[in-house]
């Protein structure tokens, strides 16, 4: 039975995500919000990931910058880390996240949102290939 | 306009001197574990907010990290600057020495761990502690190696509160209770500490391997160590042990598949032997925990009496198998194919949380004299054999054999050796097979044809003229016509 899919306009979606972020939808493991409250285009977002336990990322809080472009949510956002991190799919020099190489996110669906991205990144940190990588000292940020 | 009597900037009725406006907002502060609603002035600073939080969460202010909308709130900021309004949620991370936002579970387990340390037998003390260090949920650093011991410790101390000075005893008591009460076992399994431990295959392996009996067992049967070293299998095993529902499911599947094996002449022998040889020593190794070895009766003890098995009802097989067949089963079972990697094995019962699949443990078992004597006993008393077979243990054995068709096929292949020697023995085998295949009553020696006469008739009426095939199918399915038809139809394309 085909289900009619309503395509939610971008701004509605982002407003929803804003509200969810403000209400703590990330359950204490991820957080996100508008970078600039006056940003009417709802493009620039801050994200935050708490390093998952039992990994080298444990105890650290990672800041991210997220850009939801004009074609979001049909297209994934641009994501980059602010805090330096050693993680596969993250360019070590700029902190930019290569979403296309990230498993679940590489097959982006418009039902994915900022929360999904942050959660996936966090999951990514727990993978065997990543969870023991040596990390730069805390507090260092990418210079861009 | 100017009547701001009540809401006077001077804050007469407001006990928060810092708030110039006096509007209190309620902000939810969430940690990964906790949630509190904190009332704070709308224009308070982050520092003031943290003061309040440190009181409520009983943590030091400098341990608090506040996040809102993806931004870390710095002390000098104000709440309003970040847009924190009434009803919104702020995330809190409490930095501890080890990790953020946790501390609760360490106390309970550390107390038990100190006590556990005193009773470790051949405890691989360093290894679990190193893994414990990395788990962060404070698994007791020194685990005694016995199977279930760790759980016995924690649960025993926490739940039973027995004043026994001897922890080994306590553990055994614990385990005995566990055996008799599967509910408890599942409760314990639910305990996150336990689950954590179980989800660490290294730890489990350490525990298992450190049991001296297990070590002996491993020496005798290299396949066991092979199995233990297979992390996949361990993980599955632990999954199973952790999830009783899954375990039951597995068992049921096994039972079903096992019945398929029954029709293979000689296969039954092989299974028996394999099972006994592996399972029995395994159980013996675990005996001290389980308090009884359900298989001890099988191992060739003729009149050892019935061991009160906690989980299964097994009767001893006092009578030896008939003389002609004593030597042959060993041959028929001799076709072992090396390590059969049947990873779908499971525990036959709740009493074996290892969930080790006996089938995968090795087919070198077949040559054991124990098996022979077992078979001797069986032949004398078909009823007992029936009982034995109906026990799930056997079924899981057969299951594993079923999963290794190679092995199974080798059995019939080798049975020509026995066929050549004694046709009567084959007949006996057939009878044996029928007995448990059909749940034949009272040890009668009906041939399958007789038993399935009506079904055979029905099948041939339906057009299945190959009587042999029909018979085989009926035997395999225990007389179930529909299943037999499935089999018959399924085997045509091959």
Automatic annotation (TrEMBL), chain A:
Transmembrane segments: none
Ion transport in keyword set: no
The keyword Nucleotidyltransferase is assigned to this record: no
Gene3D superfamilies in the record: Ubiquitin Conjugating Enzyme
One Pfam family per UniProt: UQ_con
Domain (UBC core) ranges: 9-144
Keywords carried by this UniProt record: Ubl conjugation pathway
PANTHER family in the cross-refs: UBIQUITIN-CONJUGATING ENZYME E2
Official protein name in the record: Ubiquitin-conjugating enzyme E2 variant 1
Record organism: Sparus aurata (Gilthead sea bream)
Automatic annotation (TrEMBL), chain B:
InterPro entries in the cross-refs: STI1_HS-bd (IPR006636), UBA (IPR015940), UBA-like_sf (IPR009060), Ubiquilin (IPR015496), Ubiquitin-like_dom (IPR000626), Ubiquitin-like_domsf (IPR029071)
Ubiquitin-like domain sequence ranges: 25-95
Disordered: annotated segments: 1-23, 100-147, 291-368, 402-425
Main location: nucleus
Domain UBA residues, every copy: 446-491
GO cellular component terms listed in the entry, alphabetical order: chromosome; cytosol; endoplasmic reticulum; perinuclear region of cytoplasm
Entry superkingdom: Eukaryota
Biological processes per GO annotation: DNA repair; ubiquitin-dependent protein catabolic process
Sample GO molecular function, one term: polyubiquitin modification-dependent protein binding
Localization of this protein: Chromosome; Cytoplasm, Perinuclear region; Endoplasmic reticulum
Biased composition (Low complexity): 105-138, 324-347, 412-425
Amino acid composition bias (Polar residues), ranges on this chain: 291-310, 402-411
Pfam families the UniProt entry points to: UBA, ubiquitin, UBQLN1
Subunit structure: Homooligomer. Binds signal sequences of proteins that are targeted to the endoplasmic reticulum. Interacts (via UBA domain) with GJA1 (not ubiquitinated) and with ubiquitin; both compete for the same binding site. Interacts (via UBA domain) with ubiquitin and with polyubiquitin chains. Interacts (via ubiquitin-like domain) with PSMD2 and PSMD4, regulatory subunits of the 26S proteasome. Interacts with ATXN1/SCA1; interaction with ATXN1 inhibits polyubiquitination of UBQLN4 and interferes with PSMD4 binding. Interacts with HERPUD1.
Name of the protein: Ubiquilin-4
Organism: Sparus aurata (Gilthead sea bream)
The encoding gene: UBQLN4
